[in-house]
UniProtKB/TrEMBL annotation:
Domain of life: Bacteria
Naturally occurring in which organism (per UniProt): Agromyces ramosus
InterPro entries: HotDog_dom_sf, THEM6_lcsJ_thioesterase
Database matches in Pfam families: 4HBT_2
Signal sequence annotation: none
Protein name: Thioesterase superfamily protein
Length: 185
């Protein structure tokens, strides 16, 4: 995955058109032999890794990565979830569509969709993931969302959907070092 990331971030992303901060980024991939599991389709864990590559592609193309580097900021995934609809097989080409959904007072939320052309030529969603991301400073501490908005502008619209906000709250671990809630008895 390291080489795929370098390929996109250092070469391919720089050759694509620039994006606005809140535009949909489309990043093209192909299912490689190293992406497969025992069932000969893309391994579920690989989806998350490829989503990382697509997010970096978006950050390079919309100029956010350059701004982050100059300020000493970097993104981290706090939570992520994915739902699968169809499998991706060896050598299949697919596109990841990445879009900022919104933010709350602590995190930024993104949607990423794995799509391929359907029988009618329209995009068909194979998998859909949601990411809850935080931003940290290399010098220590977090970057408040208010500071991100001051740097990049506010997202137009009504805010994040209620179910995403609820999901973000439900999956957040406590800030203390105490044991996290568990279903184990």
């Amino acid at each position: 995955m390291f080489f795929r990331t370098l390929l996109h971030v250092l070469f391919l992303s720089r050759r694509k058109p620039d994006l606005g901060h809140y535009d949909i980024a489309r990043t093209n991939f192909i299912t490689l032999p190293t992406d497969l599991d025992i069932n000969r389709h893309m391994n579920n864990g690989v989806y998350f890794s490829i989503m990382d590559v697509a997010r970096f592609d978006m950050l390079v193309r919309n100029g956010v990565w350059r701004a982050f580097r100059s300020k000493g900021w970097y993104p981290v995934v706090a939570s992520e979830t994915i739902t699968f609809r169809k499998s991706l097989s060896l050598w299949q080409r697919f596109t990841i569509e990445s879009k900022l959904v919104g933010y709350d007072d602590k995190a930024v939320y993104m949607e990423q969709r794995f799509v391929r052309p359907g029988p009618d030529g329209e995009p068909e969603v194979y998998a859909q993931g949601f990411i809850r991301a935080r931003f940290l400073r290399k010098s220590g501490g977090t970057v408040p969302v208010s500071e991100l908005i001051a740097e990049f502008g506010a997202l137009e619209g009504e805010g994040i959907p209620e179910w995403i906000e609820r999901w973000g709250a439900d999956v957040a671990l406590p800030a203390t070092r105490a044991a996290a809630p568990s279903v184990w008895h």
